[in-house]
Amino acid sequence: MIVKNEEQVLERCLSSVMGIVDEIIIVDTGSNDRTKEIASQFTDHIHDFIWVNDFSAARNFAFQQATQEYILWLDADDILLEEDADKFRQLKNHLPSDTDAVSMIYNLAFDEHGNVTSSLRRNRLVKRTNNFKWIGVVHEYLEVYGNIHNAEISITHDRKHTQSSRNLHIYENKEAAGLPFSSRDLYYYANELLDHGLWERSLYQYERFLERGDGWVEDVISAYGKAGDCLHSLGRTLEAKAKVLQAFAHTLPRAENCCRLGYYHMEEANYEDAVYWYKTAAALVRPQNTQAILNHACWSWLPHLQLCVCYNKLGLNSLAHEHNELAAVYIPNDQRILSNRSYFQSLNLIAATPG
User: Fold this and answer.
1) Total structural domains in the chain?
2) In this structure, are 95 and 190 located in the same domain?
């Protein structure tokens, strides 16, 4: 692990893996709180690393300190829930010796009911002797190859920090210094600008990334959608639709982009076209074992809830009620579902629930 000022979350993280891993290595990049004191309760392997605005440099240094056969990496606001800890113990006991890396599910966000709303796969456990390297100053990735096992183990991300401008400033400083940007750098620079509401600048970086034509296909698909969001936020909705549609030239439609198009049409009160895109999203099958970030709502309840609204606007309340119930399969206690039911009861479309 690499850490800095993680006193709020570090004990929780380390407690979740204590007794599962065989050694714990902490690389501190300049904490001035109780981070190192907390770490010392779990391990003697605490190292200092002078921060050089490069996450890969810090992570590669951390990997160099490892001595065991495999390396597991975590961030301080990650935890291993008990059911996943049990799965990890089983994996340790049965992992074939020729395994080069193990990917695990990374659950990034949750709704108020605890359902996962965003996730992806990341290579989490790697064979030390392969000397896999981290690449990228920000939003770094671990470059792996060989025999990769996809495990049904989840790492839970429970962020406690507020939005930070740290990553954006790293990119801005790199740009000001005239340093070269990889295509991946451009994509994540655009994401940082988008997160800060800097639509014009974000759109420019997405265009630079897309013009190169050598980006990872999942980043390309995402970039078309996010560039569409920039254009939409700038009031250029027709251009936004055209930009999102360009993603379909690279692969079959994805639910996230279909929902984007549905939303753009809904905002224009063009409910018939919105229905088309939300029905398309609802019919898609969520991909498995992908390292792309998935918005689970777009692959489950969101298209149905939006279809409920669209059909109601079109005066087709039987269909609206049908899709409200389809959404309820995924989020049965959501207040929107319950409010819609009350509304349809008032229209005598469904019987009142017995008291």
Assistant:
1) 3
2) no
Strands (E) located in the chain? 2-3, 26-28, 46-48, 70-72, 78-79, 101-110, 116-127, 133-135, 141-143, 148-157, 294-295
**pTM score, two decimals?**
0.88
Please tell me whether residues 187 and 290 are part of one structural domain.
no
CA distance 228 to 210: 13
Give, for all 355 residues of the chain, the pLDDT tens digit. Answer: 999 999 999 999 999 999 999 999 999 999 999 999 999 999 999 999 999 999 999 999 999 999 999 999 999 999 999 999 999 999 999 999 999 999 999 999 998 888 899 999 999 999 999 999 999 999 999 999 999 999 999 999 987 765 579 899 999 999 999 999 999 999 999 999 999 999 999 999 999 999 999 999 999 999 999 999 999 999 999 999 999 999 999 999 999 999 999 999 999 999 999 999 999 999 999 988 788 999 999 999 999 999 999 999 999 999 999 999 999 999 999 999 999 999 999 998 765 544 4
Domain end position, chosen among 157, 176, 193: 157
Q: Please name the residues in contact with 143: beta carbons below 8 A apart, sequence gap of 6 or more.
A: 132, 133, 134, 135
258 located within any domain: no
Same domain, 18 and 127: yes
Domain span including residue 227: 164-251
Domain identity same for 24 and 103: yes
DSSP string, 124-158: EEEEGGG--EEE-SSS-EEE--SSEEEEEEEEEE-
Contact call for residues 199 and 230 (beta carbons, < 8 A): yes
**Domain for residue 172, yes or no?**
yes
